[in-house]
Amino acid sequence: MFSRRSAPFFHPTLKSALMKKTLALLVSATALCTVPASSRPDDMGDFDSFMSDALTDFNSFIDEANRDFINFMRNPWKKYQASEPQEQRTMPEPETQPLYTPATDPSQPQDDTPRQLEIDEILDLTTSQSRQGARSQGGKTPQQTITTEKPRPTKPAGQTPKPKPQPRPQQPQRNDEPQKPQQPQQPQRETIPSEQTPEKAKPAVPVPAPAPRQPHPLQSPGAGRSPITFGGITYHVSNAMKGSVKLNSLNEKSIADAYEALFATDYKPLVAELQTLRGNGLNNDWATFLFIKDLSEKYAGPNESKVLRQFLLNQLGYKSRVAIIPAEKRLTLYFAPNCELYGVVFVDINGTKYYDPDARSPYAFRMCEKESPSAKRTVDMHLVSMPVFNKTGKTYTRTGSGKSAALSATTPVPKELIGFYSRLPQCAYSVYATASVDPEFETGLLGALRPAIAGKSELEAAAVLLDYVQHAFDYATDDAQFGYEKPFFVEELFYYPQCDCEDRSVLYLYLVRKLLGLEAVLVEYPNHMATAVKFNSAVQGDYLSVNGKKYVVCDPTFIGAGVGMAMPQFKNAGAKVVKI
């Protein structure tokens, strides 16, 4: 009655589930045999069809693709060597904040003549070409060349900071891995009208007060649910998978058995809840990744949690793989993000980089060559929507000086938000510059600055904001403040006592976009970063021509320098323009 086929290996836990389902089918079949003949199927072919359909439904909890994947996992895994972390290829930043000093000696004239600055390359992070796995396209002009982001190192949580470095010489140096410059096109000088009515700054639209947060459907406790706290908010999710991972040893067969056994658990409710949280509560891929990490470490042991994490991430569609580190007798977990990460080890598999976000030192490991059939996408590191956080925290004030002495902003910074930022590996500049800003923080900051620019022209308003960023924040390099490289999100400039040129440039870009509605780009030099703004009216000063558009330099670290004033040492240096 049944065709015979080779039976696959089943883990003991899986066998138990199979026996229960088989018993249910036999009971159903027995009941069918006891009904009157008039109610039976017309022939045994109908009965065979009934049983076949039932068995198909019964076997569907592990489809053919996943069964093949699990069987492949039992084979010896490929040996890999983790690659050294990619680090920031930049020269040391100035140890002290640069100060603009106008020439007072007529015999020593200062070169303040506006000029068009040279561009080595343009990095366009507004397109999918900047994401991992993208390939550059042919036919680009030198100023349209799309390249990989310049790496910046990160600091994994729990690692001891390196000793504070000694002061280093300021003279420009070449990168260890210099990029071949494109042959620049002959720059076309732009004619700047001498007389033109200044463009008024666009009226800023007030940021509405955040709506009261409604109770989340997963915040209510209940039977079969366990509390998981993330961002200071406690969610209650299915605990059907708690204690479900059993590892007899740290080898391929044991891991495959454990992964297979998870299909026999009641895992679908938890996966559905994670999908709900991804869209309502956690709100982005990285927060979902961290939530699964926290949940897995609560539901399973140190090594078992890695298997559970891979299973849940795979079920949600993310590329993630467990790895065995023989020398340390432990498991770790690699994942594929959608952009470059810096300061953590990685392995390149067929053009896709997988990272271990918890390791800075390379090591040898084994990992399955085959990807889960459910894993179709990378983890998006961009924080366009932020998780819901408990709003406990402190307020921080930053007050200008000199021309901006009357300008002060007091804003709340949630403690949980800072904790969330600290768990993020160092990413591309686009992650920091495009991140959603906390609503209460944004309301406080923009509300404090808006009156100071009301009724002013674009140029006047941009100058007010530039002077504020130059004077309201104390300067320090990341090495001096942390002992490692740490880019800031906008809120972190208020939380931490000091900041560097990259941080100020990201803040100024944010303010110009939010308060003035103007386009802006980041301007990166070997050991410095500034901002450049596209005004709607003619503005004198140093500028760059980016794809036919004029962007005027605004340097939020060059104290006292106005709109259109680049540092003298960079007027003849090729810059990298970062479009975000």
How would you describe what is shown here?
The chain is an alpha+beta fold and 580 residues long. Among the domains are: 19-60; 218-367, no CATH class; 393-579, Roll (C8orf32 fold), CATH 3.10.620.30. 28% of the residues lie in helices and 16% in strands. It has 14 helices and 18 strands. It has helices at residues 12-34, 44-59, 64-73, 252-261, 268-279, 285-299, 304-315, 415-422, 429-433, 439-453, 458-472, 478-481, 492-495, 501-516; strands at 78-81, 119-124, 225-230, 233-238, 320-325, 330-335, 346-349, 352-355, 364-367, 393-399, 408-414, 474-475, 498-499, 519-525, 528-534, 543-546, 549-554, 575-579. The strands form six sheets. Strands 2-18-14-15-17-16 form a six-stranded mixed sheet. It has a four-stranded antiparallel sheet with strand order 1-9-5-6. Helix 3 (64-73) packs antiparallel against helix 4 (252-261) and helix 11 (458-472) runs antiparallel to helix 14. The protein is elongated, with a radius of gyration of 29 Å.
